[in-house]
Design brief:
The longest helix has 29 residues. α1 packs across α10, α1 packs across α11 and α8 packs across α9. Strands 1-2 form a two-stranded antiparallel ribbon. It is globular and about 65 Å long. The chain is mostly helical and 278 residues long.
């Protein structure tokens, strides 16, 4: 059964509301929401232990991660507690929708690999060389520090990073809502990719504000924590705090994705927590 979806345009201020609603959902079920993201992280680490195929499987799982969190938020809005089953639910509707979801997952993984190959060509391996250096840190070694500085100063590194970030941002547009459009709307892969692109284009002002708010939150929280730790003289605690803070913001971000979908493709679903006003 498919729901009737209606593409609509919302005001730019809704980009801020999406963030606010994400925090509300997290506040309602903090352990469940953060637990889902932590579970996915551990599963991703386990997949990376498998040579070649593990990386591809992890890339293929990313579209289902966003849809799984949309389903989780939907459950929270209905006063239910989401479990890991939300990540498998999209594959259990009908064979046709399962195959479409898998096709989207495969297309996303392939496109990501092509972006990585193109970016490596642009920077001539500068980013990979920097990664190898940072993977084997050598404290208080002047030669190592100079090598890192030289790698960071490589001109091609900037162009490679711009290519990676730019193409990754473009890739996220058609895949942002595509899995949800397949799950709730029963759309085919190509139609879902087109509808997602159109939905984001129609609401580009709201998405731009949303991106600015998230960037401000990440940078602001990082600066605040660094300042407090520096004033207390507890710099050694910074790495220990980075993981839980990253887990917190990532969980809230994914919890907010549902509201971007509901606003772009209105379909008679709750948009806020029971008893709370938008």
């Amino acid at each position: 059964m498919s729901m009737l979806l209606h593409l609509q345009t919302v005001p730019a201020r809704n980009g801020l509301l999406w963030v606010r609603h994400g925090f509300k959902v997290f506040q309602r079920k903090p352990l469940a929401i953060s637990g889902l993201f932590a579970m996915f992280l551990f599963a991703g680490i386990a997949l990376l232990l498998l040579p070649v195929v593990g990386s591809m499987l992890l890339l293929m799982a990313l579209p289902l991660l966003s849809l799984g969190f949309m389903l989780a938020t939907h459950l929270v809005l209905q006063n239910q507690t989401p479990t890991a089953a939300v990540f498998l639910a999209p594959l259990k509707l009908t064979p046709q929708r399962r195959n479409t979801q898998l096709a989207l997952c495969g297309a996303y993984a392939l496109a990501t690999v092509l972006i990585m190959l193109l970016s490596n060509w642009v920077d001539d391996g500068a980013f990979e060389a920097l990664q190898q250096l940072l993977a084997k840190p050598e404290a208080n070694d002047p030669a190592y520090e100079k090598a890192v500085e030289a790698a960071l100063a490589e001109p091609s590194l900037l162009w490679g990073m711009m290519t990676r970030l730019g193409l990754a941002a473009l890739l996220s547009v058609p895949f942002w809502h595509a899995p949800a459009l397949v799950h709730w709307g029963g759309q085919g892969a190509l139609q879902a990719l087109f509808s997602s692109t159109l939905g984001i284009w129609r609401n580009k002002a709201a998405f731009a504000l949303n991106a600015l708010v998230w960037a401000g939150l990440v940078v602001g929280l990082a600066l605040l924590v660094s300042l407090v730790i520096s004033l207390l003289g507890l710099g050694q605690l910074l790495p220990m705090l980075a993981l839980p803070l990253g887990l917190f913001l990532s969980s809230v971000f994914y919890a907010s994705l549902y509201f971007t979908f509901v606003d772009c493709f209105m379909f008679g679903a709750p948009r806020e927590l029971p008893g709370e006003k938008a």
